[in-house]
Amino acid sequence: MSHSNRWIVKVLAVAMMILVVASGGCRKKDDRPTVALVMKSLANEFFKTMEEGARAHHAEHKDQYNLEVRGIKDETDVTQQIAYVELMMAQGVDAIVIAPADSKALVAVCKKAMDAGIVVVNIDNKFDDEVLRDKKVRIPFVGPDNRKGARLAGVYLATRLNPGDKVAIIEGAPNAYNGIQRKAGFEDAMIGSSMNIAASQTGYWETDKAQPIASALINEHPDLKALLCANDSMALGAVAALRDAGKSDDIYVVGFDNIAAVQRLLKEGRILCTVDQHADKLALYGIQYALDILAGKATPADKETPVDLVTAEML
């Protein structure tokens, strides 16, 4: 390289250093913590509402924190949800607020995040207590008492039935704590009201999976009086099955989540009741709690959030 070319290279290098230093000096360091909201299926209206609530809260509090949002494509894509937690760790977020697709399978990766210094808050679907003990980790749960909510709906249904009437339960995913608790709440109410639980099968939270199950239950039990569904997506499948069977007026449908599509069906009398766990606020409770922990204003502990019965008369 000639002397003149070397001189030009040196000048350019110095100029680049000046630009880098100047830009760094002008840029204000972002001290806001970053919170990642990792949800279940965004195909479920409940989680879309949760996302909208979180984004609205962030829009009003942008000066307090940054927000990252991730959601899987279907309710059972546990592998993808684990990958999202790993991604958030790699991006260096300060807190992860997670509605786990599986109450057991997500514990290990969340412990890994906590070991890396990330605050983890569990919302919506509680982690399995036995797995938490086995992993020697405490992750605070911020969410409703799902058993109590399902029991509210079941007790309301019982006012429309007679002792001994046949009912069936369409459950959530088998490894989801909230699904297990909702089934238990339905059972509490039905057994306590002397109803006959003729069958209980999982619909894995999804409309398309619940519809054929509801159809089979209707055919197997022609004297069935009610279908208690562990979420509203599955209640939509039950409504479709009843419509196809010409039994929309003969069998009650109970849901859980209070999504917009079900509110319309409540008004039409095609769904008897649902349960509102306030999806638009549920993520906010978790995000605010994570921010409080980061700021040293709170120590990790479970916090129960509201759950309410919703009927057509309440809309």
From TrEMBL:
The chain crosses the membrane at residues 7-25. Belongs to the bacterial solute-binding protein 2 family. It is found in: Cell envelope. Pfam families: Peripla_BP_4. Keywords: Membrane, Signal, Transmembrane, Transmembrane helix. GO terms for molecular function: carbohydrate binding. GO terms for cellular component: cell envelope. SUPFAM superfamilies: Periplasmic binding protein-like I. Residues 35-297 form the Periplasmic binding protein domain. This is Sugar ABC transporter substrate-binding protein.
